[in-house]
2-succinyl-5-enolpyruvyl-6-hydroxy-3-cyclohexene-1-carboxylate synthase (Pontibacillus halophilus JSM 076056 = DSM 19796), 579 residues
Amino acid sequence: MNHTERLTRYVTQFVDELVQSGVTDVVISPGSRSTPLAMTFTQHKGIKQWINLDERSAGFFALGMAKEQNRVVALVCTSGTAAANYYPAIVEAYYSRVPLLVLTADRPHELRDVGAPQAIDQIHMFQPFIKWFHEMALPEGTEEMQRYVRSKASRAVHVAQDGNRAAVHLNFPFRSPLVPDFDLPNVWERTLSEGFHSNVNGRRRLDAHELITLHERLQHKERPLFVVGPQTDEALRYELIQLAEQFGVPLLADPLSQVRSGVVEEEVIIETYDAILKSEWAREHYRPDVVVRFGAMPVSKPFMLMLNEYEDIEQWIVEAHEGHREPTSRPANFVYSDPVLFCMDYREAFPQFSFNRSWLETWQRLNKEAKSILLSDKEENSLTEGHVISTLLDELNQDETVYIGNSMAVRDLDTFFMTTDKRIRVLANRGANGIDGMVSSAFGAASHGAEVTLVLGDLSFYHDLNGMLVGKQYGLPLRIIVVNNNGGGIFSFLPQAEQSTDFEELFGTPFELDFEKTVSMYGGRFFRTQSLEVLRAQLATAPKGLEVIEVVTNREINAQWHRTKWREIEETIREGAET
C-alpha cells in the first residue's frame, strides 16, 4: 500500500465517522496542508461544506451556526497562523458553551521546529479553552489504524457536546503528497453502520430528600426572586413561568433567557429590572433575601451590583452541569440538576406552597411603572438607540431571530425588550462579551434558513467587515442594523467620559467611515436613516440578501436620553412607595 492509498483510507474513515456521529456541516478555509481533509469533506455526500476564506470569520461563522443549530460544527484549516485566527471564536465557544470541532492540518514531525515554512507549534495551542486535544497519528491504511481514526472522530463529537459544551481540537500531521485518490476500491467502506461509539446520556435531577432539604431552606424567605440569565433551552420558559406563578415569586428575565417572548401569561415576568435597579434607592428598598438563578449571570450590571452591595442576599444557582458561573465572589449554593426537571419536580413536590404574594405584587407595580416610562415616547418620530430595539421587536414576525451585539446593543435590548406573545429567538456572543466576529456569527445563524436580524454598533461592524463575504458567496439573507454613533457609545455612560481629557481618542474612538461603499463591495443593499418612520418602513419587508440599515445617532444625546428615563423611573417608584 503506497502513501496516497494510506492517506486516502485514513482520512475517508475519519470524515465518514464524523458524519455517522451526527456532524452535518463543515466550514473550510482553503490551504495546502489541509488538502486531504478539505477534499475528503467535499467528496462525502452526507455533510455540507461551507468555504470561508478568512479563518477568523470562519470560526465565528461556525460558532453562529452551531449556536442556532444546537449541534457540533466542524472547522478545517491549514497549518501555521491560519489556526491562530480561530482563537477568538474558540474562546467565545468555551465561555458560551457552544460545541465546535476544530481540525487543524500540520507539518509532519520532522518539519517542526527546524525553520520549515508555515510551521508553528500547534500542540495544545488553544488551551485552556478546549475540552479535549489530540495529536492525530500519521496516516496509515491498516485495519487497526482505521479503527483508531474512527474512534477519535466519534469521541471528539461526543466530548464537544457532552456536559458543558465547548470546542475539541484535533491536529493532523500530513506528509506530501497531499491529494487523496477517491477512485480506490471500497474507499468509504465502514465496519460499523451505526457509528463507532454509542453514547447514552441521562439528565440530572434531585431526589425527594434533596428537594425537601432545599425547600426547608427557602420556604421561610420573605423576599425571594427567581432570575433567569442567558440560556438557550426554550423548554425552560414554560416550566419556569409555571414555577414562579405557583409559588408567587417575581421572575427577573434576562433578554437572552428566551423567556421574554412566546408568553401569553406574563404577570410574573419582570423585564424592566435593569432600569429599576439602576437606582441606588431601589437596590436598597427592593433587595431580595434570596435569589434562585437559572442560566448565566444576567447582562444587567445593576443586578450584579446589588448582589455585591448586600452580602446577606442568599444565592442558589441551578446548573445542568458542573461549573462556577458566579462572578460576585459571594457565598452561593450550587444545585446541579437539569433546570427543566428541577422546575417540574419542585412544583410537584410542593403543589400547595406559595410565598407571600405581596412581594410579587410590589415588583409587578414597579415593572408596570418602569415600562410605561420606557415606552412613553414610542409613537413619536424621534429615533434613539432605544427606539431601534423597540421598533425592531414590534416589526418582527413569528419565529424570527435577533442576533444582538455587545456593548450598548445588548444593554438597550435588556431595557426595551418587553414581553411578547411572538416567539423571538435571541442569540448573542456573551461568553467573552467581545465585539469581534458578530457579522460572521449572524450569517452562521442564518445559514440554514432562519430569518435573522443582527443589531450591533459601528465599532463592532467595523471589526468584522470581512464577515460579509460568506453571505455574498452563498446568497444568505441577513438584515444588519448598524447603530452608528461614530465610536464607542457605551463609554459615554462610564466615568471615563467625565474624567479623561483624552476621552475621544482613547474611548470615543470616532473613525468617520462610510460603510455604504463597503456594503456595496459585498453586494449588499445599504440604507441610512435618522428617522423612525423610515426605519419602520425598512423593517416591514424581509431582506432577500444582505441588507444593512445604518441608523445615525448622537452619543451625547443618546446618553442624556437614557439618563432622563432612568431618573423618571426612580422618581416614579419612590413616589409610589410613599403613597
